[in-house]
Specification:
The chain is built from 14 helices and ten strands. It is an alpha/beta fold. The chain starts with a strand and ends with a helix. This is Acyl transferase domain-containing protein.
């Protein structure tokens, strides 16, 4: 029996300048998809994600401009998914973490690609207009420390448990000094994510009203490809408009989403995000089910067209 293919789409924190550059330069279908989406972005903002993302003159600080990072993540993931499908790999399931759920929903047929991109643009604009700057921190430790360290309780909210020794917190930017001091004092390894707002927490609540109003205009259909939610930790057959607010306001349950897949099936996990983040989480969340079945199509160190083609062949042989 062949394995089922699971497309996985990551969200904020996985982006970087130049993601997908090799495909953009050398693969006509990916470039065409990016250019079509960039036209939509330009119509709404007057800017260009492609110019921002692939400028050769650009210095390489963290890629954190929310309006551009939101759109860039969606554009790269959706264009890559269409390319992989064109190569003959059809997903039996799709799942996304955080705003990766917009690309997941568009690939599944829940929302159109135009509405998906417009939704992430409008979401970014709403957050920029109404919310204080924030931070997100990935911590290599058991999440139980949230209950025992007063500094974390006072200044941060737990927003994701990715596996038993890796979790993420959100906080306001002016709290970062206190949180980092505590983590260093406790000799805990952590990483400040390239994000400018405290997603999945009460700190972005001011954006709710305007964004929920916008979502009333988005047309929503039943999934054409089974849709596994990282909000509910399970498969969804019907979605309401407020779902697309909840997925960036409420905590992430990626482990629950993976564990909701039928246990008796074999799976090939294909990470279409720009850093391979979800492939790593899959490795530690499902070690016995994901051995030799995880593929990162856009690794953070870059991959040339020959390596991409080789990975596509490997996925085909396992699915």
């Amino acid at each position: 029996m062949s394995a089922s293919v699971v497309f996985m789409f990551s969200g904020q924190g996985s982006q970087y300048y130049g993601m997908g550059l090799e495909l953009f330069r050398y693969h006509a279908m990916f470039r065409k998809g990016m250019e079509e989406l960039d036209e939509i972005f330009g119509d709404h903002t007057g800017g260009s994600v492609i110019a921002c993302l692939y400028s050769e003159q650009r210095a390489k600080p963290p890629f954190k401009d929310l309006l551009y990072t939101h759109a860039a993540i969606f554009m790269v993931e959706y264009a890559l998914a269409q390319l992989v499908i064109e190569e003959g790999i059809t997903p039996q399931f799709v799942t996304g973490s955080s705003m990766g759920e917009f690309a997941s929903a568009s690939v599944s047929g829940i929302i159109s690609v135009e509405d998906g991109l417009t939704s992430v643009i409008t979401q970014a604009q709403s957050i920029i207009a109404t919310c204080e700057k924030g931070v997100m921190i990935a911590i290599l430790h058991t999440p139980e420390i949230m209950q025992s360290w007063p500094v974390l309780q006072q200044y941060a909210e737990l927003v994701a448990v990715n596996f038993s020794s890796h979790f993420v917190i959100s906080a306001l930017a002016n709290s970062l000094t206190f949180i980092e001091a505590e983590l260093k004092k406790q000799r805990v390894t952590y990483q400040l994510l390239p994000v400018s707002y405290a997603f999945h927490s009460s700190y972005i609540e001011p954006a709710a009203t305007s964004y929920l109003d916008f979502l009333q205009s988005v047309s929503i259909s039943a999934p054409q490809i089974p849709f596994i939610s990282c909000l509910t930790g399970g498969r969804l057959a019907a979605i309401q408009s407020n779902y697309f607010w909840d997925i960036i306001r409420d905590p992430i349950d990626f482990r629950g989403a993976l564990n909701s897949l039928p246990e008796h099936d074999e799976y090939v996990y294909v990470d279409l995000g720009p850093s391979g983040t979800l492939a790593t989480f899959t490795k530690y969340s499902l070690p016995e089910r994901s051995v030799n079945s995880r593929f990162t199509l856009l690794p953070p160190y870059g991959a040339n067209i020959e390596q991409f083609t080789a990975m596509i062949r490997q996925i085909k042989t396992r699915s």
